[in-house]
Write a structure and sequence with these properties.
Pfam families: FGGY_C (PF02782), FGGY_C_2 (PF21546), FGGY_N (PF00370)
Shape: globular
CATH superfamily of the largest domain: ATPase, nucleotide binding domain
Radius of gyration: 23 Å
Organism: Larkinella bovis
Strand content: 15-25%
CATH class of the largest domain: Alpha Beta
Family: Belongs to the FGGY kinase family.
Mean pLDDT: 91
Low-confidence stretches: 337-346, 461-465
Number of domains: 2
Structural class: alpha/beta
InterPro entries: ATPase_NBD, FGGY_C, FGGY_C_2, FGGY_N
EC number: 2.7.1.-
Length: 465
């Protein structure tokens, strides 16, 4: 008897993964492969699209032949803000340009001179002005910087929809991809922004297809229900929305710490955009207010600095236990430990306070590391409060790397004494979210209620951040 499964491709910047989930959403098979970048026509690093395409198709062919599984459905979650372009012959052309690619100053000036100031456009599109990370601006750049290539483009698909296209042949657009800091979507009018229409870029996009719908496809004689694919940050939220009815904020931690509040529908303000707030799009179409903090990257950089200073391994911080006495000592004995951001460039979330600290004043690694975490959580408090404001949230869930850090979690609980704080863990949140999005198309069993493990962190008294 074959086990019915759904196959999910989860495509990160470095690691590419395929998971098979059974009807209880347990992972029953997985494969992961790291990819190295190639270079684009300007010599900048970029995704090797032909290798990725070949890997995805070859691997699905391989798992379709596994005798113990019956693959009933297929979906995709990938990093966002990246377009694949198709020619008239429906073949990929150009490059899958990297969202960190340097953006020409002259093209940026031309865009804003034509369509208005950064702040207004950012507010209307819920997208901080991030150059290449605004995928709409990347398409605009191709139009004026690489006109020969632009004239050959018949369709542009965000990466999740390109992977779906490989198996369905359908050119479609998904709300979670166009709604993620692309500068394409006017959130107040719920349509493509006026500049997109003025440039005729909307003609390059397929019809909008909801993320909880599927297409029926036959690939290598196998019938499949195929989803349109999702942006990874929106996908990661789905297991929480499926499991919890009461309003919550999810702090998804990795390189970035992204605070996502699906229960805050108040439009973004200019100040919030300045502090790196934006909106993602819920997989069923509603805006999700979010704020970003480069905390994981900062933690990585500063722990390397600590390791060099105290002559320890880079990952020594994993051995440091939470010590409330050290926190108390730091607050009482260091006049500059009150975590106000004097002397740091405004807005305060652009850089870490800790990088300005003299490591020689700390008695040992443990003390310095506690100060680093105090500084990071002080910033996290500001960042998360931006999306908590005026919403009925009573719980904060933290997943990813910092959820396993007891110092971060205890300080976060103390920073939000009126809110329940939980470390959450589950197997592969983005992949699981992509599977749950199309649950009712392939799975007759009820949604399981135990996909997320929670650990509660209670505040030990007064607020300490």
């Amino acid at each position: 008897m074959k086990t019915p499964v759904i196959a999910i491709f989860d495509i990160g910047k470095t690691n590419k993964k395929l998971f098979l989930f059974n009807e209880r959403y347990e992972i029953v098979w997985e494969r992961s492969e790291p990819f190295t970048d190639t270079v684009d026509d300007d010599g900048d690093p970029c995704e090797d699209l032909s290798r990725l395409t070949n890997w995805v198709q070859t691997l699905l062919r391989e798992v379709l032949e596994l005798p113990e599984f019956e693959i009933k459905a297929l979906n995709f979650s990938t990093y966002g803000a990246s377009f694949v372009h198709l020619s008239e012959e429906s073949r990929p052309i150009g490059y899958l340009y990297n969202y960190l690619k340097p953006y020409p100053a002259a093209i940026r000036k031309k865009f804003y001179d034509t369509y208005g100031d950064e702040t207004t456009l950012a507010m209307e599109t819920a997208s901080p002005a991030l150059d290449s990370l605004n995928s709409g601006l990347m398409l605009y750049r191709i139009k004026y910087d690489k006109p020969k290539l632009f004239r050959k483009i018949w369709y542009s698909l965000h990466l999740p929809q390109y992977l779906s296209y490989l198996f369905t042949g359908q050119v479609l657009t998904d709300v979670t991809s166009i709604g993620c800091h692309t500068m394409l979507w006017d959130f107040s009018k719920n349509q493509y922004h006026q500049w997109v229409v003025a440039e005729n870029l909307d003609k390059l996009f397929g019809p909008i297809f909801t993320s909880d719908s599927v297409l029926s496809a036959i690939w290598l004689d196998h019938p499949l229900k195929v989803g349109v694919g999702l942006h990874d940050s929106s996908a990661a939220l789905i297991p929480y929305l499926a499991s919890f009815q009461e309003p919550f904020v999810l702090i998804s931690t990795g390189t970035w710490s992204i605070s996502l509040n699906p229960f805050n529908t108040i439009p973004l303000t200019a100040e919030e955009l300045q502090y790196d707030c934006l909106c993602y799009m819920h997989y069923q179409g509603q805006p999700i207010k979010a704020s970003r903090l480069f905390a994981g990257y900062e933690h990585e950089q500063q722990t390397k600095r600590l390791a060099a200073h105290f002559q320890t391994p880079d990952n020594y911080y994993k051995q440091v236990a939470y010590d409330p006495d050290t926190i108390q000592y730091l607050r009482e004995s260091r006049p500059n430990s009150d975590n106000r951001f004097e002397g740091v460039k405004a807005p305060p979330l652009q850089e870490s306070l800790f990088r300005h600290r003299d490591l020689a004043v700390f008695r040992n690694y443990e003390e310095a590391y506690h100060q680093l975490m105090l500084d990071i959580v002080a910033q996290q408090l500001i960042s998360t409060n931006l999306v908590l404001d005026n919403s009925p949230v009573k719980r904060i869930f933290v997943d990813g790397g910092f959820s396993k850090n007891p110092i971060y979690m205890n300080l976060l609980a103390a920073a939000f004494p009126q809110t329940e704080v939980f470390a959450a863990s589950m197997a592969q949140a983005t992949a699981l979210g992509s599977a749950l999005a199309i649950h009712h198309h392939w799975n007759t069993k009820p949604l399981p209620g135990d996909t997320i493990e929670l650990k509660h962190y209670a505040t030990a008294g007064r607020q300490i951040v």
